[in-house]
């Protein structure tokens, strides 16, 4: 019996090629995806697909398209694209979509992020479990659907995607800025010249200095995972050596962006969330902004100070997107540098977030470090992982140690202390890990609280 549980996760498909994920499996998932859409009442006559720069992408897309064709769906392929460009295609064309990418994972991986028409996410509880069961049946069935007539149409939407983003954030009037962009040999090397350069649209007051723009799914320079500080070292050095105003790092599929200031210091995703929230509230006064529960306490404070309605969410894009849809929120941000926009079908786009930062920086005269300081009020630990045998028991032990604190269990255990310091401890969905995030007003208080919790977790 086929078992795809190792590669079909809560939000997407992801595995090593070809031992876990191959073209036969991609074909079965193509058929299963179309059948799931039809069963849930969605129009699945056409779907749009794209792939990142990984070597296995074109073959997997072709196999998936055969599977979709076998169940009577035509396929529009936009070829090489970032994940947010696929979301643009799904939103603007009104079609379900499939993006072949393994995001920041190493070269041997590939995967699929699926969405319904209008870039609505497909996760475990919104169709992905059905896709998995049907694909497993197809793989076990010797008489599974034969290939239907090939119905694949190639379209290039890069210029349209770039024009749409430029319509949302006007950069034409900013002061001249020098920006070094590290694409990590990922899809930022494809989209940045179109959106921020003069490849398809008029030039902006930006000098873009490219770092690792060559598309190469073997990642010869460093992994396309800016969450790991080791992968920011080259960008930080280039900023200091070349006197740039800002550095921008994208992950492999360019749906996340990380911002580095003129001194080579990272600007926290919480500060970026607050900065973009302030800009969106100036445009849409009184709107709702979603933030996940391990972003800085400064985020809801700044949203409220600017007349917005802060709404707290669990960690993870499916929860953020569900809350955004429920509340019609204008923007949502996560500690992991995913940024979601109502103007972008409630989907995440690192490029649009980067454009907001460029607009804010270029609309005033201070350096980025001073601008960002407005939004950095507290000291955070960052996420610290600990391997544990029994996550529930450890969480209970930590809770018992903090008598008199305030607790909530929206996502794991959040503990708020009388002096304003807080921490969140939550179990990984996929590994025997506990993830700890700590924040306090002063660095020494953050360190003491962090060490107190870790002593229990690792004791």
From TrEMBL:
<dbReference type="InterPro" id="IPR005843">
    <property type="entry name" value="A-D-PHexomutase_C"/>
</dbReference>
<comment type="similarity">
    <text>Belongs to the phosphohexose mutase family.</text>
</comment>
<dbReference type="InterPro" id="IPR005846">
    <property type="entry name" value="A-D-PHexomutase_a/b/a-III"/>
</dbReference>
<feature type="domain" description="Alpha-D-phosphohexomutase alpha/beta/alpha">
    <location>
        <begin position="8"/>
        <end position="126"/>
    </location>
</feature>
<dbReference type="Pfam" id="PF02880">
    <property type="entry name" value="PGM_PMM_III"/>
</dbReference>
<dbReference type="InterPro" id="IPR005844">
    <property type="entry name" value="A-D-PHexomutase_a/b/a-I"/>
</dbReference>
<keyword id="KW-0479">Metal-binding</keyword>
<keyword id="KW-0597">Phosphoprotein</keyword>
<protein>
    <submittedName>
        <fullName>Phosphomannomutase/phosphoglucomutase</fullName>
    </submittedName>
</protein>
<keyword id="KW-0460">Magnesium</keyword>
<dbReference type="InterPro" id="IPR005841">
    <property type="entry name" value="Alpha-D-phosphohexomutase_SF"/>
</dbReference>
<dbReference type="Pfam" id="PF02878">
    <property type="entry name" value="PGM_PMM_I"/>
</dbReference>
<dbReference type="InterPro" id="IPR036900">
    <property type="entry name" value="A-D-PHexomutase_C_sf"/>
</dbReference>
<dbReference type="InterPro" id="IPR016055">
    <property type="entry name" value="A-D-PHexomutase_a/b/a-I/II/III"/>
</dbReference>
<dbReference type="Pfam" id="PF02879">
    <property type="entry name" value="PGM_PMM_II"/>
</dbReference>
<dbReference type="Pfam" id="PF00408">
    <property type="entry name" value="PGM_PMM_IV"/>
</dbReference>
<feature type="domain" description="Alpha-D-phosphohexomutase alpha/beta/alpha">
    <location>
        <begin position="160"/>
        <end position="264"/>
    </location>
</feature>
<feature type="domain" description="Alpha-D-phosphohexomutase C-terminal">
    <location>
        <begin position="383"/>
        <end position="454"/>
    </location>
</feature>
<dbReference type="InterPro" id="IPR005845">
    <property type="entry name" value="A-D-PHexomutase_a/b/a-II"/>
</dbReference>
<keyword id="KW-0413">Isomerase</keyword>
<feature type="domain" description="Alpha-D-phosphohexomutase alpha/beta/alpha">
    <location>
        <begin position="270"/>
        <end position="378"/>
    </location>
</feature>
């Amino acid at each position: 019996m086929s078992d795809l549980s190792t590669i079909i996760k809560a939000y997407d498909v992801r595995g090593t090629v070809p031992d876990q994920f191959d073209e036969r499996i991609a074909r079965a998932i193509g058929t299963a995806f179309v059948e799931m859409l039809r069963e849930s009442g969605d129009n699945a006559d056409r779907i749009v697909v794209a792939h990142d720069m990984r070597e296995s992408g074109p073959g997997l897309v072709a196999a998936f398209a055969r599977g979709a064709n076998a169940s009577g769906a035509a396929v529009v392929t936009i070829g090489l694209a970032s994940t947010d460009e696929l979301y643009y295609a799904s939103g603007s064309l009104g079609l379900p979509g499939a993006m072949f990418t393994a995001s920041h994972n190493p070269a041997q991986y590939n995967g699929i992020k699926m969405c319904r028409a209008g870039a609505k996410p497909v996760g475990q509880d919104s169709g992905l479990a059905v896709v998995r069961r049907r694909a497993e049946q197809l793989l076990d069935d010797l008489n599974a659907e034969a290939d239907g007539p090939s119905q694949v149409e190639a379209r290039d939407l890069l210029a349209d995607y770039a024009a749409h983003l430029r319509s949302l954030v006007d950069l034409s009037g900013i002061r001249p800025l020098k920006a070094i962009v590290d694409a990590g040999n990922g899809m930022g090397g494809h989209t940045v010249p179109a959106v921020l350069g003069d490849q398809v649209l008029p030039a902006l007051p930006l000098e873009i200095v490219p770092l690792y723009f060559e598309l190469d799914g073997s990642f010869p320079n460093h992994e396309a995972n800016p969450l790991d500080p080791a992968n920011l070292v080259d960008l930080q050095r280039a900023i200091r050596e070349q006197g740039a105003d800002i550095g921008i790092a994208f992950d492999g599929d360019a749906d996340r962006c990380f911002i580095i200031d003129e001194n080579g210091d990272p600007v926290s995703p919480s500060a970026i969330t607050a900065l973009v929230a302030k800009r969106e509230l100036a445009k849409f006064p009184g709107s709702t902004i979603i933030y996940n529960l391990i972003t800085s306490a400064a985020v809801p404070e700044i949203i409220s100070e600017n007349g917005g309605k802060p709404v707290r969410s669990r960690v993870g894009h499916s929860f953020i997107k569900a809350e955004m849809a429920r509340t019609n929120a204008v923007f949502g941000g996560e500690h992991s540098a995913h940024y979601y926009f109502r103007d972008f079908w409630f989907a995440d786009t690192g490029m649009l977030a980067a454009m907001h930062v460029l607009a804010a920086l270029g609309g005033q005269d201070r350096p980025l470090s001073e601008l960002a300081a407005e939004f950095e009020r507290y000291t955070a630990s960052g996420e610290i992982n600990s391997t544990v045998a029994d996550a529930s028991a450890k969480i209970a032990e930590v809770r018992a140690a903090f008598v008199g604190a305030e607790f909530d269990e929206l996502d794991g255990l959040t503990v708020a202390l009388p002096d304003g310091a807080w921490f969140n401890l939550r179990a990984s969905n996929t590994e025997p890990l506990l993830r700890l995030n700590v924040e306090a007003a002063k660095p020494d208080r953050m360190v003491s609280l962090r060490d107190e919790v870790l002593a229990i977790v690792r004791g």
